[in-house]
């Protein structure tokens, strides 16, 4: 490629808005080629509480609890504009198209139902800070009289 054709391709890319690429859905195989960042979920704990990753990296949830865990991304307010998932249900009640389709939109929040084990998200995150909370499903979330806030985590995408 010579310098002139390189300039033409660069001009086309900028003209088409490639410089501001929004988050997009990914195919399942894309995760095998990315750097994984694991978030450990336990009944009353999230480790690490803050995870920093690149926009092209993979977010992996490892549920060490014997209970199914629910993850709810609560911030930022414009989650639908900032997160793109290849296999996400538009409503929680919608039937899953694949066994690993664990995420759904609920009242503008991205929620995931994570069974015990390891699960890689099939989502892309734009740069920013994302906050999520977790809760056990199927049992009382806190011991009687325990009170307190649900375990919380944060994902920083650079």
Question: Could you characterize what this model shows?
Answer:
This protein is mainly β. The protein has helices at residues 3-15, 79-82; strands at 36-42, 45-47, 50-53, 58-63, 69-75, 83-85, 88-89, 103-106, 109-114, 117-120, 123-125, 128-136, 152-157. The protein has a seven-stranded mixed beta sheet. A four-stranded mixed beta sheet has the order 2-1-4-10, with no helix packed on it. A two-stranded antiparallel ribbon has the order 6-11. A hairpin with a 2-residue loop joins β1 (36-42) and β2 (45-47). The two termini are 31 Å apart.
Oligomer: single chain
Helix fraction, binned, reads: 10-25%
What is the domain total for the residues?
Answer: 1
Biggest beta-sheet profile: 7 strands, mixed
What CATH architecture would you give?
A: Sandwich
The CATH superfamily bears the name Cupredoxins -  blue copper proteins
**Radius of gyration, rounded?**
18 Å
Shape: globular
Give the percentage of residues in beta strands: 35-45%
Please list the strands of the largest sheet in the order they lie side by side.
3-13-12-5-9-8-7
Query: What structural class results from the helix and strand content?
Result: mainly beta
What is the CA-CA span between the terminal residues?
Answer: 31 Å
CATH topology, which one? Immunoglobulin-like
Element string (H = helix, E = strand): HEEEEEHEEEEEEEE
Number of distinct beta strands: 13
**Helical run tally:** 2
As residue ranges, the low-confidence spans are: 1-26
Broad CATH class? Mainly Beta
Mean pLDDT figure: 74
